[in-house]
Design a protein that fits this description.
The protein is α+β, with helices and mostly antiparallel strands. Helix content is 15%, strand content 34%. Strands 1, 12, 14, 15, 16, 19 and 20 form a seven-stranded mixed beta sheet that branches. It has a four-stranded antiparallel beta sheet with strand order 13-21-17-18. Strands 4-8-9 form a three-stranded mixed beta sheet. Strand 5 and strand 6 (81-82) form a beta hairpin. It starts with a strand and ends with a strand.
Length: 304
């Protein structure tokens, strides 16, 4: 178990047991009923959705970040494009140095609505092509999106592939202890340390690694809340086949929480913010602690 102290003080770590690439436009003839048979029929042509090509994609390239310029598309007075993300950071056009203003290019926005764009992680292996309205949502959960370091806090800025996460933890976060087995005890030491504190431990079972986190937050002076959660060192799809149970036991009392582990792809911040985890306060700690230490029983199981 590793303890990460985010405030002043001392900490101790203890652990226990489109066909062929061609655009196809289909024409459908609609007969005009009630007219003479020689009257020409009305034709309806479906507007094609175009796959992205290198030439077409270059028209949507932001000169600042080199990502696609997607609606709303802004341009300078000379017609040069810049994406809506980069626009607030600029004082002049990065291409011609002219004034930017807030001119929208409605024609390019209309073209963008007919194009399938490659995922921004295509260079990492994703082969998805999407409409611009779907692109951001997909990229947020794309399996090829780089993983952040799953340790709580903002001190480690590491990014890498899923296969590199555990080597990173073993090299850069050596204070984190790993216990083997489906049932272990997460022993939290010095539970009464002041300020914001994170306790971290790894659990290895079923051929996967799980990170156990207990985070203490001080909402206001004298009122502390604890958030305990488990995250899988894996994808969302892998996390769905597991369940975890956290349990506090002692003095003829029991407090239990059961849930699906979070993937480190999505992290734990949103779960803690919405209290979608085991939540307790200082008064609960006093019911279960033993000389400043708190034992949390952790059980990992597979969902069949």
């Amino acid at each position: 178990m590793g303890l990460l102290h985010r405030g002043p003080g001392f900490f101790v770590c203890i652990s226990m047991a489109s066909q062929g690439g061609k655009n196809v436009c289909k024409r459908r003839n609609v007969s005009n009923q009630g007219h003479a048979s020689g009257t020409p029929s009305t034709s309806v042509v479906a507007a094609p959705v175009l796959p992205v090509t290198a030439d077409l994609a270059s028209l949507f390239e932001c000169p600042v970040c080199f990502d696609y310029v997607l609606p709303p598309i802004l341009q300078c007075q000379s017609g040069h494009l810049v994406c809506s993300t980069c626009r607030p950071k600029l004082t002049c056009c990065p291409t011609c140095r002219g004034p930017l203003g807030n001119i929208r290019n409605l024609a390019m926005e209309k073209v963008a609505s007919t194009v399938m764009f490659l995922c921004k992680y295509s260079t990492s292996g994703c082969n998805m092509s999407l409409l611009h309205t779907e692109k951001a949502d997909h990229e947020e959960v794309c399996d090829f999106k780089p993983y952040s370091c799953p340790c709580p806090g903002a001190s480690c800025k590491w990014l890498g592939s899923l296969e590199q996460v555990m080597p990173h933890l073993l090299i850069s976060h050596k204070s984190i202890t790993t216990l083997q087995g489906e049932d272990i005890v997460f022993l939290v030491t010095d539970i009464n340390l002041p300020g914001a504190v994170d306790w971290v431990m790894m659990q290895s079972c079923f051929g996967h690694n799980f990170m156990l986190v207990l985070e203490k937050q001080e909402k206001y002076t004298g009122h502390q809340q604890f958030f305990a959660i488990v995250q899988l060192i894996g994808s969302r799809k892998q996390a769905e086949v597991f369940a975890y149970r956290l349990e506090l036991n002692g003095h003829r009392r029991r407090l239990t929480w059961e849930a699906t582990p979070r993937s480190i792809h999505e992290g734990i911040a949103s779960a803690i913010l919405s209290s979608d985890c085991l939540v307790f306060d200082t008064s609960i700690v006093q019911l279960f602690e033993d000389n400043g230490n708190l034992g949390i029983n952790v059980t990992i199981s597979m969902v069949y």
